[in-house]
Each structure stands twice: as C-alpha cells, then as structure tokens.
C-alpha cells in the first residue's frame, strides 16, 4: 500500500498540490483524472521522490518519504520498488527495442547480459504484443509503438508499484484496451499498487478500482467510479455539461452534452 498523508508540493514558490491524503491499496488500479495543469503528474512525481515534498509524508514498503529533497542511497532504495512511465516518451537514442527493454534492469546489469535477462526482455515484449519490433531502432518507432516499448521496459523492473502517466495517450483503441487489460492482469497477479493518470474518462471508469478526481491541487473525490461519478462532479471539475449513462457492466459512461 502507498499511503499519502497531508502531502504538499510547491514549485517556484507556488503551491501545486496541498493536503493530499489517501491510501492506495496493492492489487488495485488507482486512476487519477482531472483537468490539465491541476497536479496529476506532480502527484506521481511526489510519490516517486522526483519532486521534494513541501509538507506531509509518503509511506511505502516500510519506508517513509519526508519533506526535503530525498537524495543518494535513500532515493535509490525508495525507487527500487517503483516503476515509473513518464508522460514524455521521446527517445532520441541509438538503441534497439530489445536493448531499451533490457535497460529496465539497469541497477542489476553487468557488462555481460545473461540469457535469463534477454529471455525476460523478450517475454515482456511478447506480453506487450510487440516482439516483432525487438530488433528495430527505438528512434525509428511511432509514438504509440514507443509507448508500448517503454511499458515493456518498466515491467522488467519487477516493481511493487507501477506509476503510469498517460500510458495510452498515443495508442489506438485496440492497443489502449490491450495495454490496460495487461496492466489489470499483472496488477492482480503481482499485487502491484498501480497508479495511472488518464485523460479518457470512460477508460478511467472502465479500469479504475479506485478513481481519484484531482482539481486545484487537491483530491476532490475518491472511490469506485460507480460510487463517485456524478454529472455534478464532472461538470464542476471540467466545466463541461455531461450526461452520465451506465454501460452493460454497470460502470458510468460520460457523455458530453453539446451546447447547441
Ligand atoms: N517545472 C515546473 N516549474 C514550475 N511549475 C511547474 C513545472 N511543471 C509543472 N508546473 C506547474 O504545476 C502545475 C501542475 O502541473 P502538472 O504537470 O502536475 O499538471 P497535470 O495535472 O499533470 O497536467 P496535464 O493534464 O496537462 O498533464 C501546473 O500549473 C504547471 O504549470
């Protein structure tokens, strides 16, 4: 479980997130939604130790991240059990896809890459459905293909917590579903604490066990989408008129209502 207690982060003297407290259970998918610039990436970065906490604390795997910039050995140990896929997956680097995936084990690699590591990297590529790209240069791939390669790379870390910032933003519908299905399967099977930032509200409602609605640097609502999503909440959060319908599985479907 990741526990956030009264977490706050400032940037350039401005409070970006403040007073964030929540518990993120293992084996579940926690989806963060919210308008642009409201602190979703900041929240992931705070959990990863990338941004210093101004207040509060984050607890995970028997360790506590406190205010101030975590450094050196502590930060290394803290991040050891996290996998983090950032929003920006640009990769202007002369490596093949297989090499990029192997780098997911960076902390454990020696000069000689053993057969087990190569087999594990190929297995992750197969799981992501992109084994056929193994020999391609990463720089020659499309944005969506790169997103899947970097997901295969973070799976190589064998994490306890998976932090994914808009992991399907460049993927077509079929690949969005296959990646999120894979994330759900692995989250359940490996007991990851999975936290995903998504902009697609309907994918968020379909995949979240726990939906965190972030606006103005605070969690405005949290819980199962069926329990938290209302027309009023979405309208207040995004300033857009919507209708909330229900799909066959009973999950909310958010339909914007045209102003015409
Ligand atoms: N390097 C930075 N220096 C100062 N302020 C920053 C920096 N990066 C982000 N911010 C500010 O922090 C706020 C939150 O940004 P953040 O990236 O967390 O938002 P977000 O909710 O993830 O947005 P998006 O949906 O657009 O990705 C924004 O107001 C942004 O301008």
TrEMBL record:
Residues 2-241 form the ABC transporter domain. The keyword Glycoprotein does not apply. The keyword Manganese does not apply. It comes from the Bacteria. CDD domains: ABC_Iron-Siderophores_B12_Hemin (cd03214). SUPFAM superfamilies: P-loop containing nucleoside triphosphate hydrolases. Keywords: ATP-binding, Nucleotide-binding, Plasmid. GO terms for molecular function: ATP binding; ATP hydrolysis activity. This is Iron ABC transporter ATP-binding protein. The lineage of its organism: Bacteria, Pseudomonadati, Pseudomonadota, Gammaproteobacteria, Enterobacterales.
